[in-house]
Amino acid sequence: MDNMKLYNAVSTTPNEAKKQIKGGRISGFTDINPMYRIRRLTEQFGPCGIGWYYTCDRKWTEQAGQEILCFVDISLYIKVDGEWSKPIHGTGGSNILTQEARGPYASDEGYKMATTDAISVACKQLGIGADVYWESGESKYRKPESKVQVTQPDAEVKRRGEAIKTICAEFGRPIDDYTEVARVTKAKNPREMTDTEFKEHMATVRKHFEAAA
Fold first, then answer.
1. What are the Cα distances from residue 66, in Å, to 97, 98, 104?
2. Exposure string (b/e) for 115-151, b if CB count within 10 Å is 16 or more?
3. Per-residue pLDDT tens digits for 69-127
4. Pairwise CA distance, residues 55 & 131, whole Å
5. Bridge partners of residue 80, in order along the sequence
6. Ordered structural domains, the chain, with CATH
7. Tell me: the pLDDT tens digits for 159-208?
8. Which of 59, 92, 139, 174 has the smallest count of CB within 10 Å of its CB?
9. Within the chain, what is the greatest distance between any pair of CA atoms?
Protein backbone atom coordinates (compact mmCIF):
# COMPACT_ATOMS: atom_id res chain seq x y z
CA MET A 1 0.00 0.00 0.00
CA ASP A 2 1.26 3.47 -0.94
CA ASN A 3 2.04 5.11 2.40
CA MET A 4 0.54 8.44 1.35
CA LYS A 5 -2.42 7.16 -0.67
CA LEU A 6 -4.98 7.36 2.14
CA TYR A 7 -3.57 10.58 3.58
CA ASN A 8 -3.70 12.34 0.22
CA ALA A 9 -7.22 11.07 -0.44
CA VAL A 10 -8.69 12.47 2.79
CA SER A 11 -6.47 15.40 3.74
CA THR A 12 -8.39 18.16 1.92
CA THR A 13 -11.52 19.42 3.64
CA PRO A 14 -14.24 21.07 1.50
CA ASN A 15 -15.48 24.46 2.62
CA GLU A 16 -18.97 23.14 3.26
CA ALA A 17 -17.55 20.84 5.95
CA LYS A 18 -15.81 23.70 7.74
CA LYS A 19 -17.45 25.95 10.26
CA GLN A 20 -16.13 29.03 11.96
CA ILE A 21 -16.89 29.01 15.67
CA LYS A 22 -18.67 32.17 16.81
CA GLY A 23 -18.78 33.22 20.42
CA GLY A 24 -17.09 31.81 23.47
CA ARG A 25 -13.43 31.25 24.30
CA ILE A 26 -12.57 29.75 20.90
CA SER A 27 -14.48 32.24 18.77
CA GLY A 28 -12.87 32.65 15.37
CA PHE A 29 -11.44 29.14 15.22
CA THR A 30 -12.35 26.55 12.58
CA ASP A 31 -14.18 23.30 13.30
CA ILE A 32 -15.01 20.35 11.04
CA ASN A 33 -18.50 18.89 10.74
CA PRO A 34 -18.43 15.51 12.56
CA MET A 35 -20.47 13.84 9.80
CA TYR A 36 -17.76 14.73 7.30
CA ARG A 37 -15.38 12.36 9.09
CA ILE A 38 -18.01 9.59 9.06
CA ARG A 39 -18.49 10.12 5.33
CA ARG A 40 -14.75 9.95 4.70
CA LEU A 41 -14.38 6.73 6.70
CA THR A 42 -17.32 5.22 4.82
CA GLU A 43 -15.97 6.30 1.42
CA GLN A 44 -12.58 4.75 2.10
CA PHE A 45 -13.45 1.59 4.05
CA GLY A 46 -17.18 0.89 3.80
CA PRO A 47 -20.09 1.19 6.24
CA CYS A 48 -19.54 1.42 9.97
CA GLY A 49 -19.33 -2.04 11.50
CA ILE A 50 -18.22 -3.61 8.21
CA GLY A 51 -15.27 -1.59 6.95
CA TRP A 52 -14.52 0.36 10.12
CA TYR A 53 -15.66 0.54 13.73
CA TYR A 54 -14.56 1.83 17.10
CA THR A 55 -14.66 0.63 20.66
CA CYS A 56 -15.22 2.78 23.73
CA ASP A 57 -12.34 1.81 26.01
CA ARG A 58 -12.81 4.15 28.96
CA LYS A 59 -15.09 6.88 30.30
CA TRP A 60 -14.38 9.11 33.27
CA THR A 61 -15.05 12.50 34.82
CA GLU A 62 -12.84 15.12 36.42
CA GLN A 63 -13.78 18.16 38.47
CA ALA A 64 -12.36 21.58 37.58
CA GLY A 65 -13.47 24.15 40.12
CA GLN A 66 -17.26 24.06 40.11
CA GLU A 67 -17.44 22.41 36.70
CA ILE A 68 -17.37 18.71 35.80
CA LEU A 69 -15.59 17.50 32.67
CA CYS A 70 -16.06 14.14 31.01
CA PHE A 71 -13.58 12.21 28.89
CA VAL A 72 -13.69 9.21 26.57
CA ASP A 73 -10.96 6.96 25.19
CA ILE A 74 -11.77 5.13 21.95
CA SER A 75 -9.95 2.77 19.61
CA LEU A 76 -10.72 3.09 15.89
CA TYR A 77 -10.24 0.08 13.59
CA ILE A 78 -10.21 0.14 9.78
CA LYS A 79 -10.14 -2.74 7.30
CA VAL A 80 -7.51 -2.48 4.55
CA ASP A 81 -7.07 -5.24 1.93
CA GLY A 82 -9.24 -7.55 4.00
CA GLU A 83 -7.25 -7.13 7.22
CA TRP A 84 -8.17 -5.17 10.33
CA SER A 85 -5.77 -2.51 11.51
CA LYS A 86 -4.19 -2.13 14.89
CA PRO A 87 -6.17 0.21 17.20
CA ILE A 88 -5.98 3.92 16.36
CA HIS A 89 -6.46 5.65 19.69
CA GLY A 90 -8.26 8.90 20.37
CA THR A 91 -9.18 10.80 23.54
CA GLY A 92 -11.97 13.37 23.61
CA GLY A 93 -13.48 15.61 26.22
CA SER A 94 -16.48 17.81 26.95
CA ASN A 95 -18.48 19.31 29.84
CA ILE A 96 -21.34 17.70 31.71
CA LEU A 97 -21.68 20.48 34.27
CA THR A 98 -20.90 24.09 33.38
CA GLN A 99 -21.19 27.20 35.50
CA GLU A 100 -23.01 29.88 33.51
CA ALA A 101 -24.12 33.40 34.36
CA ARG A 102 -27.61 32.17 35.26
CA GLY A 103 -26.30 29.25 37.31
CA PRO A 104 -25.09 25.67 36.70
CA TYR A 105 -26.02 23.95 33.45
CA ALA A 106 -26.00 20.15 33.20
CA SER A 107 -25.68 18.58 29.75
CA ASP A 108 -26.93 15.08 28.98
CA GLU A 109 -24.85 15.06 25.77
CA GLY A 110 -21.43 15.48 27.37
CA TYR A 111 -20.28 11.91 26.76
CA LYS A 112 -21.68 11.96 23.23
CA MET A 113 -19.71 15.10 22.42
CA ALA A 114 -16.60 13.64 24.08
CA THR A 115 -16.96 10.51 21.93
CA THR A 116 -17.30 12.63 18.78
CA ASP A 117 -14.19 14.52 19.81
CA ALA A 118 -12.30 11.26 20.40
CA ILE A 119 -13.25 9.97 16.94
CA SER A 120 -11.98 13.21 15.40
CA VAL A 121 -8.63 12.74 17.16
CA ALA A 122 -8.33 9.19 15.80
CA CYS A 123 -9.35 10.31 12.29
CA LYS A 124 -6.75 13.05 12.38
CA GLN A 125 -4.07 10.38 12.63
CA LEU A 126 -5.29 8.97 9.31
CA GLY A 127 -5.00 12.41 7.72
CA ILE A 128 -8.71 13.26 7.67
CA GLY A 129 -8.97 17.06 7.73
CA ALA A 130 -5.19 17.43 7.69
CA ASP A 131 -5.33 20.75 5.86
CA VAL A 132 -7.30 22.24 8.75
CA TYR A 133 -4.99 20.88 11.41
CA TRP A 134 -1.81 21.60 9.48
CA GLU A 135 0.50 24.01 11.28
CA SER A 136 0.13 26.81 8.74
CA GLY A 137 -3.64 26.36 8.50
CA GLU A 138 -6.52 27.18 10.77
CA SER A 139 -7.98 24.89 13.37
CA LYS A 140 -9.88 25.23 16.59
CA TYR A 141 -6.51 24.91 18.31
CA ARG A 142 -4.94 27.80 16.42
CA LYS A 143 -6.66 31.11 15.89
CA PRO A 144 -6.11 32.77 12.51
CA GLU A 145 -4.02 35.89 12.57
CA SER A 146 -6.11 39.01 12.33
CA LYS A 147 -5.33 41.39 9.52
CA VAL A 148 -4.99 44.90 10.87
CA GLN A 149 -6.12 47.53 8.42
CA VAL A 150 -4.11 50.72 8.61
CA THR A 151 -5.91 54.03 8.16
CA GLN A 152 -3.74 57.12 8.08
CA PRO A 153 -4.83 60.42 9.65
CA ASP A 154 -6.16 63.14 7.35
CA ALA A 155 -2.94 65.18 7.53
CA GLU A 156 -0.88 62.22 6.31
CA VAL A 157 -3.40 61.42 3.59
CA LYS A 158 -3.14 65.02 2.37
CA ARG A 159 0.67 64.82 2.38
CA ARG A 160 0.59 61.65 0.33
CA GLY A 161 -1.82 63.22 -2.14
CA GLU A 162 0.59 66.11 -2.59
CA ALA A 163 3.48 63.66 -3.08
CA ILE A 164 1.54 61.93 -5.86
CA LYS A 165 0.78 65.26 -7.56
CA THR A 166 4.47 66.23 -7.28
CA ILE A 167 5.79 63.07 -8.95
CA CYS A 168 3.20 63.40 -11.73
CA ALA A 169 4.25 67.03 -12.32
CA GLU A 170 7.94 66.00 -12.31
CA PHE A 171 7.37 63.67 -15.24
CA GLY A 172 4.70 65.80 -16.91
CA ARG A 173 2.07 63.15 -16.34
CA PRO A 174 -1.65 63.61 -15.65
CA ILE A 175 -3.03 62.10 -12.47
CA ASP A 176 -4.81 59.46 -14.57
CA ASP A 177 -1.39 57.97 -15.45
CA TYR A 178 -0.68 57.49 -11.76
CA THR A 179 -4.08 55.83 -11.33
CA GLU A 180 -3.24 53.41 -14.13
CA VAL A 181 0.11 52.50 -12.55
CA ALA A 182 -1.63 51.89 -9.23
CA ARG A 183 -4.16 49.64 -10.97
CA VAL A 184 -1.55 47.63 -12.87
CA THR A 185 0.58 47.11 -9.75
CA LYS A 186 -2.53 46.31 -7.66
CA ALA A 187 -1.57 48.92 -5.11
CA LYS A 188 -3.71 49.57 -2.06
CA ASN A 189 -5.32 52.91 -1.39
CA PRO A 190 -2.52 55.22 -0.12
CA ARG A 191 -4.72 55.97 2.91
CA GLU A 192 -4.38 52.30 3.94
CA MET A 193 -0.63 51.95 3.36
CA THR A 194 1.96 51.96 6.09
CA ASP A 195 4.79 54.47 5.78
CA THR A 196 7.09 51.78 4.38
CA GLU A 197 4.48 50.58 1.91
CA PHE A 198 3.88 54.11 0.66
CA LYS A 199 7.61 54.72 0.13
CA GLU A 200 7.90 51.48 -1.83
CA HIS A 201 4.77 52.37 -3.79
CA MET A 202 6.16 55.75 -4.79
CA ALA A 203 9.45 54.13 -5.83
CA THR A 204 7.44 51.77 -8.06
CA VAL A 205 5.52 54.69 -9.59
CA ARG A 206 8.81 56.49 -10.31
CA LYS A 207 10.25 53.41 -12.05
CA HIS A 208 7.17 53.14 -14.27
CA PHE A 209 7.29 56.82 -15.19
CA GLU A 210 11.02 56.64 -15.90
CA ALA A 211 10.60 53.54 -18.08
CA ALA A 212 7.91 55.26 -20.13
CA ALA A 213 9.81 58.56 -20.48
1. 8, 8, 9
2. bbbbbbbbbbebbbbbebbeeeebbbeeeeeeeeeee
3. 999 999 999 999 999 999 999 999 999 998 887 888 899 999 999 999 999 999 999 99
4. 27
5. 83
6. 5-133 (3.30.390.80), 154-212 (no CATH)
7. 999 999 999 898 888 988 888 888 878 888 888 888 888 898 999 889 88
8. 174
9. 79
